[in-house]
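yo, Structural maintenance of chromosome-related protein is done. seq:
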Amino acid sequence: MEAIEQMEIELNRLTEELTAREKHLAISSRSAANILRKTIQREQNRIRQLNQGLQGVSFGQVNSVRLNVNVREAHSVLLETLANDHEQHQDLFNSQRLTFSEALAKLYQRLNPQIDMGQRTPQVIGEELLDYRNYLEMEVEVNRGSDGWLRAESGALSTGEAIGTGMSILVMVVQSWEEESRRLRGKDISPCRLLFLDEAARLDGRSIATLFELCERLDMQLVIAAPENISPEKGTTYKLVRKVVNNTEHVHVVGLRGFVPEPSVSASSGDPAPQH
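structure:
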């Protein structure tokens, strides 16, 4: 009788422990979903703020630029299940053989059997599912007047417009960093928006002109390398030439200021010197 009583006591203890573990894991599932959702919402709000700044950006035939960010459908289903339907999948989260990341991966596979997971382990997949960035898919769109909004793909934009689109987004991101730093430090800072573009000789004159227009509109400075095909209408073009005099190497720098009368806000530099 005493042995049976001890077994009943042990069984009750294990039952209570299992119940507590189930509640803990249920809370963990909901907590993970809530944290991911809040983080995703925060990043979506940041994208909206970037889009507000991009509304006034125009250059070449591009009238405006915007970012579209959405939650992937398969990941949205996972979040919904973690938040509201986790009880149906407690066989995964109650298993002592699986970590939370592995259980999360198994649940994702169960909800999306059509998706090929490749050779990745459940642990790796689960860790990726805990990273909010993997839940988002983003597209860049440009407005070209009568053409409406188009995806910013290589075939839809000229080379200059494609580079300008990326640069405009970069500038908006830098500007958001400046505002965040200003808010955290409680003091104003002088922005230094200096961008560099290499291999500019691959661009034609129209593409270069598009970039100059963007720089002027966004009040930033652009340093371009190797612009043999750039006429110094704006900014200052520097020519660097290596020369050897008395067995000593010298670099001669000649600057030619642009002849356009209005003030220049962009600069270009080149290095057409021979390669060693």
